[in-house]
Amino acid sequence: MKFLFTCAAAMLGTLYAQQPATAPTTPIEDSAIETASLADIYKSVVRIEVASQVPDYKTPWNAGRFSGGNGTGFLIGENQFLTNAHVVSNARRVLITMHGSSRKHPARVLHVAHDCDLALLELDDFSPFEKLPYLKIGSIPKLESEVRVIGYPMGGERISVTRGVVSRIDFRPYAHSRADSHLVVQIDAAINPGNSGGPVLQNGKVAGVAFQGLTQADNTGYMIPTPVIKRFLKDIEDGQYDHYVDLGVYDFALFNPAMRKVYGLQPEDPGVLIASVTTGSSSSSALKAGDILTALDDYPVDSSGNVTIAGERVNMNEIVERKFAGDSVKIDFVRDGEKMTADIKLKTFPPAGMYSVQYGKRPRYLIQGGLVFQPLNLNLYSAHKFKSPRVRRLYSEYVKEGIYKERKDILILTRILDDPINSSLSSFAGNAVKSINGVAITDIEQAHSLLNPDQAPEFFEIELDGIDRPLILPSKGLSEANERISTNYGVHKPNNLKN
């Protein structure tokens, strides 16, 4: 199933240099929205105009392409405008315009959460907005109830209001990161480019944030519901965003009668099979493959891995979704026919970032003798579409097989910039670096040190995964070659080792 980013500003990136922020207040509880006029409420919904710069992972030494777009945001507290992360990704300039005004107000990103597609902005000068009401965060709307979507979709400059009915509450992928799934609410109203980041209102309160639409259906939109919004706002209260935690398990539905019999489950027994547990994850010390997970925090887990919360049947991960790093979750499970209980301390899992789109970061790279080396991630994989089976396996199994424990970076020789010093070496491009002069490569910083030693060896011998013969690069004439390559290809900086 493919999703469409619903804002013309949906790009690979976020604000390049975020400003430090004080801890924001929670949405104002004494908001006057219930008594405010409709005109005032509309003024609290703003148009966001973004100029952005998208990094180029094929030529990482270049600045990247410039683009622009617009989205929607809304006022939730003093100088606090909530919107989608994809509206302000890779932003170099952010301007906010009030409904009914032509004046553009410079803004900046305070916090951004790419894993749940939310961001908080503030203005350089908030005084023109001081008397406007704050939109109050409400609760999840009920199925078949009506909501209003407010925003600035394409097709005009003025504010737009549409109505829709809540048709589904589900746990689905978020298109922005391409790797995260959270609670979503589906409505039968189109979410068009420009609507992104706008409030979805019910009974005068925010029921969600419009963020994506379905490309394969008409009048089908999705909004980020209030539990996700409230978690984001709670997370940033200490001045920084700490990301989601995860159980770190892969589950398998237990519908098959024969499988249930093998695991000793009666037809009415709860439980889902743990197919595998990620090494180093929150669950790795308590669960193992073959266990039957029966409950999380005393919420029974059914055969498909769902739980019932407030009358709604949702994916069991929703229990963990509402927690933070350091929190605990109680698990009940069956192992070899014995009922067991454990408390798991939850934590984030940085290696999983391999599979998320990276925003607001300059590509890391290293160039020596025209050989361009880059750490593997989703951005790089998407840009180069590697054909090497070994590279594809390293990427797909990076977390599952625990490759991250030995190789923080999977360093790829992405291309070779032609020069006499590297003649006849082009066939080596597109492969992963295994070692340099016999030293196994763990990250790009180490590779830089090995390729730039105080005392250069006669040759640099580079071994690549799955390639029988090594790549040999002479050190003699290397400095002159680097200068030629920099001039010929416009390489103003030979490396960028940090994000």
TrEMBL record:
Instruction: State the UniProt keywords alphabetically.
Output: Hydrolase, Protease, Serine protease, Signal
Q: Does the keyword Signal apply?
A: yes
Q: Where is the Protease Do-like PDZ domain?
A: 358-493
User: Where does the PDZ domain start and stop, copy by copy?
Assistant: 265-346
Which range is the signal sequence, renumbered to this chain? 1-23
Question: Signal as a keyword?
Answer: yes
What InterPro entries does the record tag this protein with?
DEGP_PDZ, DEGP_PDZ_sf, PDZ, PDZ_sf, Peptidase_S1_PA, Peptidase_S1_PA_chymotrypsin, Peptidase_S1C
Name it.
Answer: Trypsin-like peptidase domain-containing protein
Source organism of the structure: Rubritalea tangerina
